[in-house]
Amino acid sequence: MGVRDHLGRLVPIDGRPERIISLVPAITETMYHLGLDKEIVGRTRFCKFPVDKVQNAINIGGTKDIKLDRIHELKPDLIIAEKEENTKEIVETLEKHYPVFVFEVQHFKDVFPMIEDIGRLTEKEEAGSKLVHQIKTAFQTLPHGGNKRVAYVIWQRPYMVVGKNTYINSLLEEMGFINPFTEVEGRYPIVTEEDFKQAELDELFLATEPFPFREKHLDVFHEMLPHTKVRIVDGEMFWYGAKMVEAAAYFKTLREE
């Protein structure tokens, strides 16, 4: 008995899980949205939404540096992971002891089967279907077009940007933006000041995570790219899952400004 996860692995899940650990912040928030408050017994220190509920689950470490002893104490009957968010080594370590279901979210369209599969795994199908409908409806209100050339910066020293085959890039495409760095090798390529200049950008987004870009960083980019609109964007709004309902309104302001 078992179910196939998004990597095609057979996961030995038998019956409805009652003690779940999530290693993925966006999925943790999504599971709470589906009403799994009692089932979520563990989460990472980066799982911070919803703020009024996550403190009820035990902190089992980070997304890439788990505390195995805490996980053993919680005795989970299901652990949720994601291919990019968590390492292969973590999954291989945990699957020796527990069922580990691995999702893979690299594109906007991957979000919907993720939500629906969580619903099926936890017998929350109705709530999952409702959330999928809410997200699709919210994103239908986004204005499209414009074809502005936009880069999304996630790190400095060295500068790193969002590239191809990433969920964030797929969001930029949903908003009608063109990301010139999808033509560069790698999902999160390292770029130089000269690369920024040659990209002929209309806008540059400096994300508040994982590197905490703030207003104080704007001057450097304004000097580097005097003809490009540079702004700080809320990186949390680029999470997938339940956050997308709230994020659609935020993205609408990005498209209209």
**Strand portion:** 15-25%
Order of helices and strands: EEEHEEHEHEHHEEHEHEHEH
Distance between the termini: 52 Å
Please identify the oligomeric state. Answer: single chain
Largest pleated sheet:
5 strands, parallel
Low-confidence stretches: none
Mean pLDDT: 95
Q: What percent of residues adopt helix (DSSP H or I)?
A: 25-40%
- Rg over CA atoms, rounded to whole Å, is 19 Å
Q: Which class of secondary structure composition applies to the elements?
A: alpha/beta
What can you tell me about this protein's structure?
33% of the residues lie in helices and 17% in strands. The chain is α/β, with parallel strands linked by helices and 257 residues long. Strands 5-4-3-6-7 form a five-stranded parallel beta sheet, sandwiched between helices. It is globular and about 55 Å long.
Would you kindly provide a brief summary of this structure?
It contains 9 helices and 12 strands. By secondary structure, it is an alpha/beta fold. The model has no long low-confidence stretch (mean pLDDT 95).
Structural descriptors:
257 residues, alpha/beta, globular
Strand and helix map with partners:
Elements: E1 3-4, E2 10-11, E3 20-22, H1 25-33, E4 40-43, E5 58-59, H2 68-74, E6 78-82, H3 88-94, E7 100-103, H4 111-122, H5 125-140, E8 150-155, E9 159-161, H6 167-174, E10 190-191, H7 193-198, E11 203-207, H8 218-224, E12 229-233, H9 243-256
Parallel strand pairs: 3-4, 3-6, 4-5, 6-7, 8-11, 11-12
Antiparallel strand pairs: 1-2, 8-9, 9-10
Helix pairs in contact: 4-5, 5-9
